[in-house]
Amino acid sequence: MADSQFEGGCEADSRPPFLCLNNAIVKRSGKTILHVGSFELAEGESMALLGPNGAGKSTFIKLITREILPLYQDEPPVLFRGNARATLEDVKKSLGIVSSTMQDQITVHMPAIEVVAGGLYGSLGVPKRVNASEDDYARCRKTMATLGVESIADRDVMTLSTGQARRVLFARALVHDPDVVVLDEPCTGLDPQGMHYVRRSMRAIAQSGRAILLVTHYAEDIIPEIERLLLIKDGSVHADGSKEELLCDEAMSSLFDVPMSVAEVTPGHYSLTSEY
Ligand SMILES: Nc1ncnc2c1ncn2[C@@H]1O[C@H](COP(=O)(O)OP(=O)(O)OP(=O)(O)O)[C@@H](O)[C@H]1O
């Protein structure tokens, strides 16, 4: 799926980190649902977040996407590329986002390509005030082709299978050529074939030089290109380290509070199981 549109990527350089969190606290209904003491993500660095249901993973991701703001502190708790005042616009330009719940938000009939074109405007479809150009649509088709869904560009998105729609959402996330792709449970609800294509797409994105921030419950989603894991439990960082260090029986059992077994099925490909 290599495509020149996705070429580029990170150089080892002196730019500020892509993201710094420092004493970032999110409260809901009077309760702290996430507290991150200190966290740094370098430009171009990929990472997977793992943790039990309700641990705070999506909240962590929403701090990055600026859908959630942390409590005010004298020292800014979130620095986006060194900037404490990054706008939603700045963040949207840099990120492509796919979540399994995004699909539920598509409730109107429109051609799949319109959903993809929405990625150029940070919306789910093309806003009414906008006239997308021929070039825009050509770009959408090209992006869809890299994900193997060009042939369904004109199909009503509401009639697509879950797997097809997920790949259309991938195309939407990539069409504006973001530096970082955020994937919140991208394989949830997919059959093995759908998972295969999504994971293959993830690898192609990573190999094109884009960073991936992945939230997942599946070790199989942690593609070889992702080397760092962030384990979130009870609203805080349980562990932060390399895949070699943390993708093991001990760390996973401690994270999920049940005996877990990690196997490297083939080099760089893992599975996570428990006996019952
Ligand atoms: N608006 C809200 N009001 C109260 N509690 C909230 C609110 N939003 C989130 N929470 C709580 O914050 C906690 C963290 O939620 P979050 O969605 O980040 O968890 P998660 O790790 O992504 O879970 P999952 O794996 O189930 O998707 C949960 O206990 C959730 O119930």
TrEMBL record:
Q: Which domain of life is it from?
A: Bacteria
Database matches in SMART domains: AAA
Q: Its Gene Ontology molecular function terms?
A: ATP binding; ATP hydrolysis activity; ATPase-coupled transmembrane transporter activity
- All copies of domain ABC transporter, residue ranges: 19-259
Q: Which InterPro entries match?
A: AAA+_ATPase, ABC_transporter-like_ATP-bd, ECF_ABC_transporter_ATP-bd, P-loop_NTPase
Q: Which UniProt keywords apply?
A: ATP-binding, Nucleotide-binding, Transport
CC terms in the record's Gene Ontology section: ATP-binding cassette (ABC) transporter complex
Keyword Transport (UniProt):
yes
Looking up Pfam families in the UniProt record yields: ABC_tran
Regarding protein family, the annotation reads:
Belongs to the ABC transporter superfamily.
Can you name this protein?
ATP-binding cassette domain-containing protein
Task: Recite the lineage of the species.
Answer: Bacteria, Bacillati, Actinomycetota, Coriobacteriia, Eggerthellales
